[in-house]
Amino acid sequence: MWKSEEKVSSGQWAVGNKSEPARYSSVSAVKHLRRRLSRLLHTAHRPLRTSFILLLTAHCLLLTGACRRDMQDQPKMKPFRSSTFYGDGLSTRPPIEGTVARGFLREDTEFFTGKKAGRTGNSTASSQSPLPTGPTPGNTPQGAAAYPDDVEVFPLPVTRELVTRGKQRYEIFCAACHGFTGNGDGMIVRRGFRRAASFNDDRLREAPVGHFFDAITNGWGAMPSYAPQISAEDRWAIIAYIRALQLSQQQATQNAATPTVTPTPGGGHQ
User: Fold this and answer.
1) 3-state helix, strand, coil in the chain (%, to 5)
2) Residue-level pLDDT at 123
3) What CA–CA distances, in Å, run from 178 to 23, 95, 104, 193?
4) E strand residue ranges, the chain
5) pLDDT tens sequence across 75-84
């Protein structure tokens, strides 16, 4: 039971059935009633309150039990599964005409294809034909003329960071076949697989950068496409590093071909 003595205000007490102060503001009266109700609920009516809460919980469980749905039973369509909802019986819907998926706009044709704008579909050098390995006839175009649809200039700035990134990607994806110096003598070639193209041949030294991008993107000869593994920017980074390899190996070849002049004791040269 609640106490019979309660402090009402400073200096005033209500004991037993004594009259309470006459001057109560509405806020004080509400607070006073709340305190009494709270004490009643926590003491005399505790069993009733507990029973009410249990009944309310059981009622909520009964109402929401029928709405329960596990995550594995979500109402969704899975790819390549049939559906009776659509007339064609397919669950996968074709994209709306004229729409482009996020991240696939690719307005920069040269950056994403390596081809000159407006010339992406009529390349004279088909990616399905293998790289020529023997001597070419005299009437066959050479250098950039052999790949008229491919861009000859990098579509992004070539920086030290780009070449460093290209070196890392090259050693991961390309060195196994083309070797660390680009001579086509990678580890799998040494193990008996088909020899890869050498980037240090004059034919590939003179090839435009777009040709390398096309080969990485679509594959070339025995080389498969690396587009799923290598992003477009990383492809250009690899090509920048290939150009650096070509320059370094060409310089090394020229230095090796230069004869060494040894001075004689008499001041002449041999």
Assistant:
1) 40, 5, 55
2) 44
3) 98, 40, 31, 12
4) 5-9, 12-15
5) 778 888 888 8
In this structure, is the dihedral angle defined by the CA atoms of residues 170, 171, 174 and 178, taken in order, positive or negative? Answer: positive
Please answer whether residues 188 and 245 qualify as being in contact, where contact means their C-beta atoms are separated by less than 8 angstroms: no
Q: Which two tokens stand for residue 262?
A: 């040894």
- Helix pair angle (46-65, 26-42), 10° resolution: 90
Contacts for 129 with CB less than 8 Å, ≥ 6 apart = 221
Name the burial class of residue 22, with classes exposed (0-12), middle (13-18) and buried (19+) by CB atoms within 10 angstroms of its CB: exposed
User: What are 95's two structure tokens?
Assistant: 């994209």
- Residue 85: pLDDT band (50, 70, 90) is confident
Q: How far is residue 86 CA from its own chain's centroid?
A: 32
In this prediction, residue 250 carries a pLDDT of: 83
Is 175:242 a contact under the CB 8 Å cutoff?
no
Reading the block at residue 224, the tokens are 């498969």
Is it the case that residue 97 has pLDDT exceeding 50?
A: yes
Express each pLDDT in 17-32 by its tens digit. Answer: 444 444 445 667 667 7
Highest mean pLDDT among 122-126, 136-140, 144-148: 144-148
Q: How far is Cα 237 from Cα 170, in angstroms, rounded to an integer?
A: 9
Place of tokens 């020529």: 132
- List CB contacts of 43: < 8 A, sequence separation 6 or more: 1, 2
pTM over 0.90: no
Residue showing tokens 């909520």: 60
d(C-alpha 215, C-alpha 55), whole Å: 72
